[in-house]
Amino acid sequence: MTTLTPTDQELIQAASDLLLRTHDAALHRVAAAARGVSGAVYLGLSLATPRVSVCAESSAIANAKMAGEEAITTIVSVGLDPADCPVVINPCGVCREVVPSFGRDLHVLVSVNDDVTAVTSDALLPMPWVRARPYS
Fold first, then answer.
1. Residue 129 within any structural domain of the chain
2. Domain ranges, residue 24
3. 93-107 pLDDT, tens digit each
4. What global pTM score does this model have?
């Protein structure tokens, strides 16, 4: 397991604080924090309606891009455990495909056997989907 850095812990805390402040089981169940190459931290919140959901990781990345951030270096998402304490959760399948597009050597903080560690985005999706070329 990779030892978390103080900046990793800061990201987890930022996402946790956001989730505790905004949690609504019907609308906002996950929060994310992403660190840009500039060092700035960008937050994201899941958005849910009966018909569509937007992941917290996507909104954190969108906030970074809107701020002019060149790329993301690290990202984490948190949800609440049964005791309503924030815990690191692993990205969904869509986020495993989206996140790697926004930074080379990007690290994702994940939960493995109840330990939090950093993995590369390649470890999340070892065989990424690629669009077939159109017929010529």
1. no
2. 6-122
3. 899 989 988 877 899
4. 0.90
